[in-house]
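TA notes, week 10

Several of you asked for a full example with nothing omitted. So below is the full record: structure tokens for the whole chain, then the designed sequence directly under it. When grading your own attempts, check the secondary structure regions first.
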């Protein structure tokens, strides 16, 4: 194994010293047996012949890695000791409301198999691995069960593992500065990092987020490349995951002209009660996980030299009392933004910039000073609404011109000045909507064709080799026609979306048509097999007269406290009103939220939709 690392480092150093970019290290190429989508079990993978050298043709590897016709396999060879460290990191940082920045050590095996049978295989030693995500973060490992929950991971190819603050006596000692710099500069397939995420929202096509980004790119919007991979973690097969090109300096260099480079890049999201509504200039900076400091506008480039003047100028300009069209255009790349808004409407993600002030990057071009939006984290959309279906119709009935979102009245001046009736760019936005809605990508038959490509490659890889507690209700199979309360089929989604769009274009003042159906209530909390998501075993049953009930057995270990709230899956609303008379109930109040705490025991929980109150009765057995 050490020989392979040396080879990789020598290659990088030679290129750096002599600039000999014509030096090409050819990866292992073999002719495997023909691929078959009819297999029911994943074939064993032999990693013994994987090449330790990183191919000098990194752009070629990038194209092969994200080519949908190629079969991709990842094996994250990580020890139980390192997994336990990631779990400990999660516990330590989550205890003060933060996220661990610490990478733990693993080896990554990558296999790329082309349709004609060529196989490119790599072993990349000593990659860094840490947990990735926000609401998806959870406890996932213990010494008895091993990895018992699935979590997303970020993989770094340039981690040096030498910070004593993080690694203590395990910190690596590098032979010299040149060797350390070579590791810091190491990339694979042109990438410094890569994210891998399991199919948490149970998209039975596996590719709707991938398809969304492709639709953005088709319409001229910068968007990351993604693809599927068969993933092994340690000795276990973890199913089919999606992996992501990161949005960083390398991404910008690939997608923008040289004169546009050097600007400020921000990742946007919630920070406490603040969100990316562009209504104020108060939460911006560089996140510091060790201090638990996070910002709505999290700077990703120019971290040491930016004065945030581009962001400040944007927010001040678009919030002017007597703003003009010309002033708005001076700070926003309007053609790009209108295309972004139109594509986002067709995708229907309730957790995006328009609907929830969330989940995108913004970049200020150095040549024009104008802002462009880069979409990110579209794991909901095109009918996928597991755990969050705000209007009960999978976002098919909302108007492209509506002046509210899932948070209430629209506060974001980016949208108020572009998509609302009477706004500066209303006519151009209508034109963008018509153009996007006519894309061949929105034809269900084209989508079905794309799904079939991935299904033929990965159908035999979807099922994990062991049970994971937070994935107990997942189907782990391709099923393009599946429609249920969590996710609507792509065909049904597009049909409803296009029908409603045509109605709104003909009559912009049309009233949204929302489905009329019974309350769809779930008990959601930090239960070991629930993790704040909808589970059938925690679904309330209607007893009549607006009263619902669900039985629950609570086990508390090591002084932990079980937390829960009531969630209405049809409207996306939480209910957490408290019946103070319950002696077994402890109430924690933070901000505007109440969370119920239960001691260990068996309970029946009642929810009254007439009064929006909770009643809890302790039972000797779950009813």
């Amino acid at each position: 194994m050490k020989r392979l690392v040396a080879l990789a480092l020598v290659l990088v150093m030679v290129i750096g010293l002599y600039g000999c970019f014509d030096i090409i290290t050819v990866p292992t190429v073999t002719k495997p047996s023909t691929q078959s989508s009819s297999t029911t079990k994943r074939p064993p993978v032999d990693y013994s012949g994987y090449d330790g050298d990183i191919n000098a043709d990194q752009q070629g590897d990038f194209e092969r890695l994200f080519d949908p016709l190629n079969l991709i396999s990842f094996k994250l060879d990580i020890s139980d000791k390192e997994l336990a460290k990631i779990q400990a990191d999660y516990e330590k940082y989550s205890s003060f409301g933060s996220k661990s920045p610490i990478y733990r050590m693993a080896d990554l095996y990558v296999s790329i198999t082309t349709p004609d049978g060529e196989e490119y295989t790599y072993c990349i030693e000593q990659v860094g691995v840490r947990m990735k995500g926000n609401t998806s973060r959870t406890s996932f490992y213990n010494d008895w069960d091993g990895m018992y929950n699935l979590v997303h991971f970020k993989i770094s190819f340039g981690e040096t593992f030498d910070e004593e603050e993080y690694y203590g006596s395990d910190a690596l000692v590098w032979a010299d500065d040149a060797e350390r710099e070579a590791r810091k500069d190491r990339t694979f397939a042109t990438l410094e990092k890569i994210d891998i995420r399991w199919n948490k929202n149970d998209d039975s096509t596996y590719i709707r987020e991938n398809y969304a980004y492709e639709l953005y790119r088709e319409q001229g919007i910068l968007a990351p490349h993604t693809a599927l991979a068969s993933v092994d973690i340690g000795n276990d097969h973890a199913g089919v995951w999606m992996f992501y090109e990161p949005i960083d300096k390398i991404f910008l260099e690939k997608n923008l002209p040289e004169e546009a480079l050097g600007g400020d890049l921000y990742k946007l999201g919630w920070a406490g009660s603040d969100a990316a509504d562009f209504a104020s200039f108060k939460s911006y900076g560089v996140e510091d996980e060790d201090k638990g400091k996070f910002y709505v506008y999290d700077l990703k480039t120019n971290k040491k030299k930016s004065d945030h003047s581009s962001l400040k100028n944007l927010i001040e300009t678009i919030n002017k009392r007597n703003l003009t069209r010309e002033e708005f255009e001076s700070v926003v790349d309007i053609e790009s933004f209108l295309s972004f808004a139109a594509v986002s409407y067709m995708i229907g993600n309730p957790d995006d910039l328009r609907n929830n002030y969330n989940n995108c990057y913004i970049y200020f071009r150095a040549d024009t000073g104008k802002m462009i939006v880069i979409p990110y984290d579209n794991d909901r959309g095109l009918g996928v609404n597991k755990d969050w279906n705000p209007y009960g119709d999978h976002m098919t009935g909302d108007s492209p011109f509506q002046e509210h979102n899932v948070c209430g009245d629209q506060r974001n001046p980016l949208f108020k000045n572009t998509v609302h009736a009477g706004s500066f760019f209303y006519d151009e936005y209508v034109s963008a909507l018509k153009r996007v809605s006519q894309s061949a990508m929105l034809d269900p038959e084209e989508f079905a064709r794309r799904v079939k490509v991935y299904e033929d490659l990965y159908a035999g890889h979807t099922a994990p080799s062991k049970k994971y507690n937070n994935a107990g209700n997942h189907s782990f199979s391709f099923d393009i026609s599946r429609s249920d309360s969590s996710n609507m089929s792509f065909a049904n989604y597009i049909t409803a979306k296009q029908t409603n769009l045509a109605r709104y274009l003909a009559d912009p003042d049309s009233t949204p048509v929302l489905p009329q159906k019974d309350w769809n209530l779930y008990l959601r909390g930090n239960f070991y097999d629930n993790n704040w998501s909808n589970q059938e075993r925690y679904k309330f049953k209607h007893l009549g007269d607006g009263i619902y009930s669900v039985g629950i057995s609570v086990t508390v270990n090591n002084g932990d406290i079980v937390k829960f709230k009531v969630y209405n899956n049809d409207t996306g609303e939480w209910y957490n009103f408290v019946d103070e008379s319950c002696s077994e109930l402890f109430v924690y109040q933070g901000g505007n939220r109440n969370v119920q705490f239960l001691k260990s025991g068996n309970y029946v929980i009642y929810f009254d939709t007439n009064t929006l109150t909770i009643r809890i009765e302790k039972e000797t057995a779950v009813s």
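Residues 1-41, 578-593 have pLDDT under 50 and may be disordered. Use that as a sanity check on your answer.
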